[in-house]
Design a protein that fits this description.
By secondary structure, this protein is α/β, with parallel strands linked by helices. A five-stranded parallel sheet has the order 2-1-3-4-5, sandwiched between helices. Helix 6 packs across helix 10.
């Protein structure tokens, strides 16, 4: 869904300790349809406080900030205000703080050179549940898991009562596919994909795609890519 097709603007808080960056994002988003910037924070503590007071739909969260960094702020927001989603802002996609932020509950990420349209798409994607993590990020996440956790043996049957179709969806999530991409791959509707994801998340206790990647690795369903 494009932002123009969405009748409801997403309420957004922007958190970045660099004034020029923060004000630039706020100004940029103010010119575009589909989002309404309701607050701006200069550090993680301020971001958490704004979320508590304003209940925004999404926080665009810088990772490296004083007092409370983006990872800890994300963890607190997702624990205390689960109705607010977090999209992290990074200078580089391989920022070492990115994976902890995803594990803390961030639903997506953007590099700081992203254009306004890209930011709006990311905001609406996380709200609709369609967002995926890029294949490059998925690769590095699996490599990170392989470095820190032993590779488990593959299960003889689907874990946690997952159906064959739910297993297919899980493996495609682990490849970095978004909901529309999974739908095209399986020749089903996006609504059907969302139903399968809701079911598999309920059965496994998962909350987001980063957790799904970790789960798939921990159960021996996927391996880090060779080379």
């Amino acid at each position: 869904m494009t932002p123009e097709a969405d009748p409801k603007s997403a309420r957004v808080v922007v958190a970045d300790d660099q004034t020029v960056v923060r004000e630039g994002i706020v100004m940029l988003l103010g010119l575009l349809p589909g989002v309404e910037v309701v607050g701006a924070a200069g550090d993680g503590e301020e971001a958490v406080a704004l979320v508590a007071g304003l209940a925004p739909d999404v926080v665009l969260m810088d990772l490296r900030m004083p007092r409370c960094d983006g990872v800890e702020a994300t963890r607190r927001i997702r624990a205390e205000h689960p109705g607010t989603q977090v999209v992290v802002l990074t200078t580089f996609a391989d920022d070492e703080s990115l994976f902890p932020a995803l594990e803390a509950g961030a639903r997506g990420y953007l590099t700081k050179d992203a254009g306004g349209d890209e930011i709006v798409r990311a905001v609406h994607s996380v709200l609709s549940g369609d967002a995926g993590l890029s294949p490059g990020i998925q690769r590095r996440l699996l490599e990170r898991l392989a470095e820190t956790e032993p590779a488990p043996a593959a299960p003889s049957e689907p874990p946690d009562g997952l159906t064959a179709r739910e297993m297919e969806v899980l493996l495609l999530i682990a490849e970095g596919l978004s909901n529309p991409e999974i739908a095209r791959s399986l020749h089903v509707s996006t609504a059907t994909v969302k139903t399968h994801i809701n079911n598999l998340f309920t059965k496994t206790g998962l909350k987001d795609r980063a957790q799904a990647v970790r789960y798939a690795y921990a159960k021996g369903l996927v391996r880090p890519p060779a080379g």
